[in-house]
Design a protein that fits this description.
Blueprint: H1 2-15, E1 19-24, E2 27-31, H2 33-39, H3 43-46, H4 62-73, E3 79-86, E4 91-101, E5 107-114, H5 116-122, H6 128-150, H7 160-173, E6 179-188, H8 190-197, H9 199-216, E7 221-225, E8 230-235, H10 241-256, E9 259-260, E10 263-264, E11 268-277, H11 283-299, E12 304-307, E13 310-312
Parallel strand pairs: 11-12
Antiparallel strand pairs: 1-2, 1-5, 3-4, 4-5, 6-8, 6-11, 7-8, 9-10, 12-13
Helix pairs in contact: 8-9, 9-10
Length: about 325
């Protein structure tokens, strides 16, 4: 289903009438068909090429090239401008708008619309309907890339960058009277299962475990995967320690009863937990304490949980 959605998004971007360019580290990674038509370029002229040097063949494009340099070397703000662009045969008037995507894979989205005919017919500097359309297209493009940069594609959980960002923002909203819990979960024996039965089998373990976590933590929580077999959870609005203990026991049960393709999997969970008040705002300190608790569990035979350095087993 996710692959179908990605395909649909990609097809929409490829076939819309506005030009779309996506950059990472100053290189062009994606252009759609409209871009090639607008700039009178071929795909091989652009893909993988340094963006700042891809359009320097004509001196008539000084204004256009200056904006490109602004985009590449000043990614702290969005840019919008109407510029002249010479294809080698004719001069075009382009409306260009850019936006930086701040995520794990930082990139820049550039949208362009050819206003040449519009300028000739109406003699106006800007068509406001086109601005609205460009803004809508830019918003869709940003949402698409943002979604794909924040979500772990295998499990559908938040990735490390997004989870840490959300947690730090959420901690700031807690009042002193609030109580929350932070879980760090390692799946014991996952590496052995992955090595024995193959990566596809291991992927199924991770996906099924993630789905079970989503069902267990339905509200007032954020769930992330930090890569491999490490998972993290921020649980808001904790009523008492027993509530957290019950969640931890169920996580251990989910892991120890895992079945993939009608085959019982040797698996367990080692869980480190911190219960903290809303006055604690240091994310790194909270994570470090919970992470240390994981190794307390592992040193006592795995398959259990530790809350604030106090061992508890299901």
């Amino acid at each position: 289903m996710e692959e179908d959605t990605d395909f649909i998004h990609s097809k929409i971007l490829h076939e819309i009438s506005d030009g779309v360019i996506y950059l990472q580290e100053g290189k062009i990674l994606y252009v759609n068909l409209a871009t090639l038509e607008i700039l009178d370029k071929k795909m091989e002229d652009l893909i993988g090429k340094p963006f700042a040097g891809a359009f320097l063949e004509y001196s008539e494009n000084d204004d256009f090239n200056q904006m490109l340099l602004d985009v590449v070397y000043d990614d702290t703000q969005d840019h919008e401008k109407i510029v002249q662009y010479f294809t080698g045969e004719k001069m075009k008037t382009l409306h260009i708008k850019t936006s930086a995507i701040h995520s794990e894979n930082f990139g820049i989205v550039i949208l362009m619309d050819d206003l040449t005919e519009l300028m000739k017919l109406r003699e106006v500097a800007l068509d406001f309907e086109n601005i609205k359309k460009i803004n809508e297209q830019l918003s869709k493009a940003r949402d698409f890339y943002k979604k794909n940069s924040e979500i772990d594609k295998l499990t559908g959980l938040l990735n490390k960058i997004a989870f840490e960002k959300i947690c730090k923002r959420t901690l700031k909203t807690f009042s002193q009277e609030d109580t929350a819990a932070f879980f760090v979960i390692d799946l014991d024996y996952f590496k052995e299962a992955n090595d024995t039965y193959g990566h596809q089998f291991g992927d199924e373990i991770l996906k099924k475990f993630s789905m079970s976590l989503k069902k267990l933590f339905v509200r007032d929580s954020f769930i992330g995967r930090f890569g491999g077999d490490e998972f993290v959870i921020l649980l808001e609005k904790v009523s008492d320690e027993n509530f957290v203990v019950d969640k931890a026991k169920k996580i251990c049960e989910i892991a120890s009863t895992m079945i993939i393709d009608d085959q019982k999997v040797r698996l367990s969970a080692s869980i480190g937990i911190v219960i903290f008040s809303g006055s604690e705002k240091d994310y790194d300190k909270i994570f470090e304490t919970a992470d240390k608790s994981v190794y307390i569990v592992k040193s006592h035979g795995k398959n259990g949980f530790s809350i604030n350095l106090s061992d508890k087993n299901p």
